[in-house]
User: Which sequence fits this backbone?
């Protein structure tokens, strides 16, 4: 096995293209588990931790350009105001040790349906910036990024450079069900973003379908029902109906962490609560 | 592969390191530092916790090569010429050690917390130690030890 340690993005893309047998490693919190347990034996490790720009974030117009290698700990300390949904999700990831190393780029690279970064990225309408030495950079709407269980549109010669996440124009929420408050792979998860600037609602469902996914029909329903002009209260029946529509958008399975029926039920509850909390936040802010 | 890294303030060189090997293996098996423990090798137990460039990490999840040129502090680096680190002393006095397997990771994590938050609340202590498992103590004595170390450190 070789250990490739590029220090520039150009060298990393060149190495990615030259070594199809290399496995990229960022925080290593998914990759090292596979290596330690002999589940993978790549021909090389392509270490991305020496590329400075991957570890930076910057505002880019109405969005934050979050380098793929920024660890969760920094999302929490730096971006709680601009990307509240993603920061809330980051707070629930693993333990302090995992959050010090694990990255949003690694979460996208693994593309697990249970990854906690995915629901808030979906709700916010983020774009994933990927790049290759041969074709340069391209941007993929995050909803089109996931193609199956642990699969994505990332081509073998591509790396993830960054995620472009629109800065929150309104309240956001993230909810996750698990057996404890820490060190938990989500049984189910839900993210909500209110976009009062365009009278729209964003959603993201985690751990309840082969890929993370939105609930577009529920989004339209809630956006149509909310009293955006005078910001009157959200009727309980509307919040409950929104919850049902979110649950209907999932296609969960039974597994060791929970049953399909429980996942649907918990999604309905989380979505109802998230909508109520977020709308109340918006009303208070008015 | 050659790995040159600073461990507990001293430059260390290891040769013939397998590129897929973890920082934990490097420390324990090549550099003779068995303080960080190997229990799960999957980030679940925290017994391998060390500082990497000042951040608490699971050494089992860091590739050895990722530590090249970086600075690592293990539990062996906590105690100084004047004896145990205050957190270690508090663990001894509070009875927070039974079999002791989890202790190095917890001591590193608790010292990290107290360096950042001198007077942590109970929820802050629990949050900081959420990634460290102990099968013996039931955690109460561990919380006592961290509270004790915090109260001493906060004294003028
Ligand atoms: C104890 C423990 C608890 C955990 N808890 C959670 C949790 O609560 N929620 C959660 O979502 N996850 C959790 N995880 C999983 C993991 O921490 C996350 O998926 C994390 O985001 C992975 O990031 P990383 O930087 O460590 O990725 P790595 O392990 O370095 O890489 C993961 C994958 O992404 C690829 N990759 C990394 N960076 C790039 C890039 N820039 N371009 C292309 N491919 C790339 C790698 O090749 C690999 O396939 C946990 C893991 C452990 C060990
Ligand atoms: S051995 Fe590293 S976390 Fe358990
Ligand atoms: S004292 Fe035995 S595992 Fe904690």
Assistant:
């Amino acid at each position: 096995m070789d250990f490739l340690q590029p220090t520039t993005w150009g060298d990393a893309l060149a190495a990615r293209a030259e070594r199809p047998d290399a496995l990229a490693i960022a925080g290593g919190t998914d990759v090292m588990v596979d290596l330690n347990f002999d589940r993978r034996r790549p021909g090389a490790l392509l270490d991305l931790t020496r590329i400075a720009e991957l570890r930076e974030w910057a505002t880019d117009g109405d969005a934050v350009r979050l380098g793929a290698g920024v660890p969760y700990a920094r999302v929490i300390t730096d971006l709680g105001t601009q990307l509240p949904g993603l920061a809330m999700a980051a707070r629930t990831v693993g333990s302090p040790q995992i959050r010090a190393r694990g990255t949003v780029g690694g979460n996208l690279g693994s593309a697990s349906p249970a990854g906690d970064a995915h629901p808030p990225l979906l709700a916010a309408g983020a774009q994933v910036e990927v790049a290759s030495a041969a074709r340069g950079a391209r941007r993929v709407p995050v909803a089109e990024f996931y193609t199956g269980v642990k699969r994505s549109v990332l081509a073998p010669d591509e790396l993830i450079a960054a995620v472009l996440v629109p800065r929150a124009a309104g309240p956001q929420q993230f909810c996750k069900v698990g057996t404890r408050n820490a060190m938990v792979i989500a049984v189910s998860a839900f993210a909500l973003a209110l976009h009062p600037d365009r009278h729209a609602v964003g959603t993201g469902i985690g751990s309840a379908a082969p890929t993370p996914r939105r609930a577009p029909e529920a989004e339209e329903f809630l956006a149509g029902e909310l009293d955006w002009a005078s910001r009157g209260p959200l009727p309980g029946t509307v919040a409950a109906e929104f919850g049902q529509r979110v649950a209907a958008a999932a296609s969960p399975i039974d597994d060791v962490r929970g049953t399909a029926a429980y996942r649907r039920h918990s999604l309905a509850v989380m979505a109802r609560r998230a909508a109520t909390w977020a709308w109340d936040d918006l009303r208070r802010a008015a | 592969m050659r790995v040159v890294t600073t461990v507990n303030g001293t430059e260390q060189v290891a040769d013939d390191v397998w590129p897929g090997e973890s920082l934990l293996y490097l420390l324990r098996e090549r550099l003779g530092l068995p303080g960080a423990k190997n229990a799960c090798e999957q980030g679940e137990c925290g017994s391998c916790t060390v500082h990497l460039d000042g951040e608490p990490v699971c050494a089992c999840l860091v590739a050895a090569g990722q530590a090249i040129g970086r600075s690592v502090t293990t539990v062996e680096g906590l105690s100084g010429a004047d004896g145990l680190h205050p957190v270690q002393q508090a663990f001894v006095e509070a009875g927070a050690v039974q079999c002791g397997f989890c202790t190095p990771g917890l001591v590193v994590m608790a010292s990290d917390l107290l360096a950042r938050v001198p007077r942590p609340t109970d929820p802050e202590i629990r949050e900081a130690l959420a990634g460290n498992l102990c099968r013996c103590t039931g955690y109460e004595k561990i919380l006592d030890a961290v509270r004790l170390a915090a109260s001493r450190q906060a004294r003028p």
Chain A has a mean pLDDT of 97. Residues 172-285 of chain A form a domain with the Enolase-like; domain 1 fold (CATH 3.30.390.50).
